[in-house]
Amino acid sequence: MLADGLMATGENIAACPEKNIEFFTPAGPENPAYRDDPTQPVAEDRIEDLPLRGKKPKKGEADTRTFDKSAFLYDSEADVYHCPMGKTLERRSERSKSERYLYRIAKSECTECPLRAKCFKNCRNQYGRRIENGKHERAKQAHATKMQTERSRKKYARRAAVTERPFALIKRGFGVREFLVRGLDKVRAEWTLLCIAHNLHRLLSLSRPQARASVP
Q: I want to staple 138 with a disulfide (CB 3.0 to 4.6 A). Which of 76, 161, 181, 199 is the partner?
């Protein structure tokens, strides 16, 4: 299944293997946090490419963004996180009702860290960096790791050719962003007309001389 990013919820990711569904979603930009040995720091020349949280500053403004959770790599076997410097965040507590877990790094590890300013908006923070995760974190991390592979990126790239172009034409070219009728039968009829219009548009495009010359 090739789905958009909104479908990449923990529940969906965890449920797909149970139904023998191979699930693919957008991989996003290459994340240098995914490295062979997470106990070692991210390469110095890739630090600036790590994902950040917060709004990108306007020209002339200071960049106060901090490392996003995805800059920390989760080790499902050891049940720990590794920060961009390779340090370990261990599980400290559990919120049973929300099924969320808190991971924190030792204060001493953060005090002299050269990347401290990218972990805390307030550099006077007296605690180590912390991360929260939910019950589907292992599945989400495994999925994110899979989507960073070349195979998965190529697989997902097929979605653009299969679905994006027709929907883009219908929404932008035809200006149709919602159905004008109500009821399943009426909506199905309207959708059929839109598909016919799309196919005629495509046929007309292919019938032009320059289009015919480019078709193998």
A: 76
